[in-house]
Amino acid sequence: MPVELYLAFVAATVVILVIPGPTVMLLISRGLSDGKRNVLPLVAGVALGDLTAISLSMLGLGALLAASATLFTAVKWIGAVYLVWLGVKMIREKGGVPAADPQAAKKARFAQAFCVTVLNPKTIMFFIAFLPQFVSHSHPVPPQLVLLGATFTLLGAVNSFLYATLAASAGSRLTRPGVVAAIRKTGGGVLIGAGVLTAAMRRAG
Q1: Which is the most buried residue in 60, 161, 172, 184, by most CB within 10 A?
Q2: Crossing angle of the two packed helices 141-172 and 22-34, in degrees rounded to 10
Q3: How far apart are CA 77 and CA 126, in angstroms?
Q4: Residue 50: Cβ-neighbour burial (10 angstroms; 0-12, 13-18, 19+)
Q5: What's residue 87's pLDDT?
Q6: Among 114, 20, 77, residue whose Cα is nearest residue 196
Q7: Mean pLDDT of the chain
């Protein structure tokens, strides 16, 4: 594909990624409360979530969500309820996943990041509307979509790593139990708020 078109896609993707959404809220909340040990599982979960959403959009699910109010509402409410559940769970946590089982902690954070990323119905709809704008019709389309999808996933992983690492670095300086508990409750409240906003989303058109 033309280099200038690809660079325009990269620039637009960076702008889109840095705007906070439910996934970024989860990264910040978990980074602040759980520290650097959970950064990589979170980033991996976001990357797989983005890749899954891109794949589903290419398979036509984005168009189906845009056309079906019932399906859009169902996916929207599943995502909203999950975010609220995560927020309540974080508020009620006393020390996160026990350190005695680090593998369980990694799997839990990976699953949370993946689900929050992929259960946003507008994520899939966004990909199906966004990617075609940067496709050159004078070149084979499938390879371009693969390149754009891979680029978005990579940039999303880098963005997630930066958000989570910065939050974890800030959280590591706050070691008093009362402060840590307040951070966890604040993070839980942010996730609950993200769930409410997700529930309030309306289907485009």
Answers
A1: 184
A2: 30
A3: 18
A4: buried
A5: 78
A6: 77
A7: 78
Length of the chain, in residues = 205
Specify the pTM: 0.73
Which pair of structure tokens corresponds to residue 27?
A: 């990264």
Tokens read off for 159: 């963005």
CA distance 3 to 187: 41
What is the pLDDT, as a whole number, of residue 98? Answer: 47
61 Cβ neighbours under 8 A, 6+ residues apart: 124
Nearest CA to 122 out of 16, 34, 28 is that of 16
Q: How far is CA 138 from the centre of its chain?
A: 33
List the structure tokens of 137: 């019709």
Characterize 74-104 residue by residue with b for buried, 16 or more Cβ atoms within 10 angstroms of its Cβ, and e for exposed.
ebbeebbebbbebbeebbebeebbeeeeeee
For residue 35, the SS3 value is coil
